[in-house]
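I am still learning, so would you mind making up any protein sequence you like and the tokens describing how it folds?
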Amino acid sequence: MHSTEKISVIIPVYNAEKYLEKSVRSVMEQAYGNLEIICVNDGSTDGSAEILSRLQSEDPRVVVVDKANGGLGDARNAGLAVATSEWISFLDSDDFLCADAFESISAVFPENPDLICFGTRIVTEDGSEPALSDRKYYAVRFSGNVEINDSVIKKTDGSVCNKMFRKSILDSNGIRFARIYYEDFVFTMQYFFCIRQAYYFKDKFYNYLRHSGSIMTTTFVRTPRAIDHLRGIGYLFAFVVGKGLHKSHEIMLSHIFVSYYWLSVKYSVQEKQEEIVGCAAEIYDKYDFLRQHVSRKLVNRTVCYEMKSRRHLVSGLLQILFCARREYFHYRQYKVVRLFNLIVYKKLIPEA
């Protein structure tokens, strides 16, 4: 017999009138009925507010939260602030759920998993075949109850929408969305570090609509926001180290640092690359485990694997980690970092 625990579904809404009704109705029409549907209107200027008002009048389970525009993570945090259920699900306002999603997922509630993960179906607006890279990213590589370890974490995508979280774990560990772009990965990783086991469904319960304005479409392009990939790692490391959770995961964290440094550089506009270098150097100098585990071998394995045709660019990162530090540690006045023939001088506060 399936559980009847209530699920809070948080839907951030910003100028989503084209897709919003289909998205919310996919929750309203779930076979599983014990739901709290929290729609956070994040300062929309189109007809989204009117659509939400009409849907709320149809279904008392729909809760509408109106707020000034603060971004996706801020809207999700506003939803978490009013959620009353133990189980938390996130749905983006242009995506939709399969009708039996929560009915199927609720079957494992009695097993008390810390996290529930499920598959994602990529739906393109023009009916074209989804990119292979997208399908690989969302592939579910496990099934059933799984004990959490570094391999499981690395092989699970960072999206929050194809997962269900326990609010008690979020609250007790102070896990909320950072006010940066690409905040899903940080939130999901913080949660992984606080749990012991998860339940995986290979079923594709979540339908992700790929269109010109969707998040994944605008994530892997050159943008001034690319530095937020790296800033997110700074938030993650501060959280993990602050709770003393890093000691058995230092190699994986070092790998993440190198990967996300490179991701920031790869998708950054030219004028932001100096800032990215400085951000990377600050993170690197702050954590002893990075200086212990980030090696030439790791850099080559991570970066060269992703960019086989541009191996010469690896030297920029190696200069940060092995060459520039000589001036920094000898003089303690200026940090000198080189990348792609750029030089960043950052004055440090003199030691007392």
About this structure: The first strand starts at residue 7 and ends at 13. Residues 7-218 form a domain with the Spore Coat Polysaccharide Biosynthesis Protein SpsA; Chain A fold (CATH 3.90.550.10). The chain has 16 helices and eleven strands. The CA atoms of residues 22 and 327 lie 58 Å apart.
